[in-house]
Amino acid sequence: MQNILLGAGVMLAVMIPFTAQAEPAPKVQSELERCLDATNGGDLAMKDCYVAFANAEDARLNAAWPRLMKAVGGPRSKIGAALVSEQRLWVRFKETSCRHYMLASGTMGRLQSQTCYADTISRRADQIEQFAAFYEDTL
């Protein structure tokens, strides 16, 4: 439950079907940790770990999407259409949100960019899974 302030000091409690700081799936997270441990701190090797992590999280997101669409009655339902529109905007966000790190150049910029990109995908995968559970329970 989250409290939202509505003008004039009026507080409204709202159920939000996802958490702001979601954790990646434990299996994928442990694979990332194993990969990072094996890099001995090499920036480019660490970047490759985050590439693999982002790919795994993207697969998790793509696996959860059909479940969500089924729960809301498909992409042509009102909720489904709204979610499809949101997802299209999110994809644009995902593609541009971490690009500024690349402008810093060097291997550290590439590592930071990939870490940010992987985190962005992981958070969205968590949201899609949580949205699916929410709508399965409420619709």
Main attributes of the structure:
139 residues; mainly alpha; Substrate Binding Domain Of Dnak, Chain:A, Domain 2; two-stranded antiparallel ribbon; 2 strands; elongated; disordered N terminus
User: Averaging pLDDT over every residue, what do you get?
Assistant: 84
How are the strands of the largest sheet arranged?
Answer: 1-2
CATH class equals Mainly Alpha
- Under the CATH scheme, the architecture is Up-down Bundle
Portion in helices: over 70%
Overall spatial form:
elongated
Number of domains: 1
Order of helices and strands: EEHHHHH
Write up this protein.
The chain has a single domain, classed as Up-down Bundle (Substrate Binding Domain Of Dnak, Chain:A, Domain 2). The N terminus is likely disordered. It has a two-stranded antiparallel sheet with strand order 1-2. The longest helix is centred in the C-terminal third of the chain and has 33 residues. 24% of the residues are buried. 71% of the residues lie in helices and 7% in strands. It has 139 residues and is mainly α.
